[in-house]
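Input sequence (529 aa), recorded before submission:
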Amino acid sequence: MEPRLVGPGPYRATRLWNEIIELFRSGMPLRKHRCRFKSYERCFKASEAVDWLHELLGCNQNFGPEVTRSQTVKLLKKFLKNHVIEDIKGRWGKEDFQDDGHLYRFPPSSPLKPYPKRPSCTKEVVKFPGWNEPKTGASQEQILVKSVTMNSEMWYKRHSIAIGEVSACKLMYRRELAQANIEEIWKSMTLSRLQKTLGLDSLDEVLDTKLVNAKHIVQNVYSVNKQGIVILEDKSKELPHWILSAMKCLANWPSCSDLKQPTYSGFERDVFKTIADYFGQMKEPLLTFHLFDVFVSVLGLLQKHSKVIEALQISCLLLPPENRKKLQLLVKMMARISFNKDLPPLSESVTTRTLVVQAFSRCILCSKDEMDLDELLAAKLVSFLMDHYQEILNIPSSLKASVEEHVVHLQRVQIKYSGADADVAFPAPSFCYQISTDEFESQRANGFQEPLATLLEEIAMNKELSVKDKKKKLKQFQKSYPEVYRIRFPTPEAEAVLFPEKNKQKPPMLIWALKKPFQPFHRTRSFRM
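Predicted structure, token format:
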């Protein structure tokens, strides 16, 4: 069984868990071992399992080479606890697996985790101010949306310019959008963009949209300093000054401008431990519990660099502002520590980068309920954040431009044609999906030509129009939509049927009675006298 990339979607962590179990059971070498003068068939040593699984995870594109041997041991402990493996005496249920020579084997069947069922999240209706509402004292009402039956009269009024005549019209003004409306627009369009980027039919399986705070999104976009760091309104939620000083010390090592006391041997390790202890005692990770499935789904896009960057940019906008600011400062410090060659090693056993990832992974991403792969997934995400934090923690410019353009459009003056239905509103367009060429041609023919053909037929059959007006409208229609016109009138004879020739009687010839018969002109000669 070959490893495959598990893409974004609901229950990605569970799908990864089940796949690793299947790969481990199908690929782990089994052979005969002796223990205490007794032979055991089809088993393996603990150290052999660590070697094989560590290599598998390192080559698996869902995890990558960032996985350490100690993380592999922790995963095998969870395998033993969940009866994926058992010792040669059939014991399991405890996490007492060690990287040693103890013998283990597979039970007859290793249990795969079922996919949990989540209650469907009801979708919220975004409210906007209606047309011609009073500016004060009126409550925000929902825009009424009803289906539109596009008859020829309405079509003619809406497309009168193409026909050659413009109906009377008037300007319609929408009242100024309140801050609450703008916040809801940001929330709606942000979630829609995230859904499209992840390629999901719905966000319900990875996110409860009711928990997304629209105010947080707007503050994360607009309340920022020149460096893009969020400016908090509540100063009590800021990081303590001593933690900020410690983070600046390591980030700018060896230039510690905020440090007043002298350093000593091993000082940088104590500073690092102080920072790690502070973030480690937080009750909730910076990416929050309810966004865990969203960020795990984003990891399925790692093979598409631009997509994963955009998805992480959008997902980080959903964070509370205080969490986003702490994440910005922490990841920036982590990246600088990892690439700072002047900083002494912070550990004797692992590299500084590995130590940083291990120390801060769980305070950035973890699940509220115990998840078997959350540590590996968190390490994968944190490593990617460190390498691309300057892009990820910026505001997605395309999303910002789209929202602001949409807000301007809603506040723009509209034109209403006389006689048109003022309450008619068209539903918002849904997301595009790929269709075949034949289906596209069919939709274009049915969706575009049928209303035009109906309109042409009504013009042709309208007995109230004079012949002159009918010919004029048909000529203008033929000029605007020649294909539709050609289908209805393939030959001049088909068009001539609409205008039958009337029997014209020739007027009787007027016979003028000549009073005198015609006398030819006689040339005369003149004689000189």
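Checked by second reader. The longest helix spans residues 437-461.
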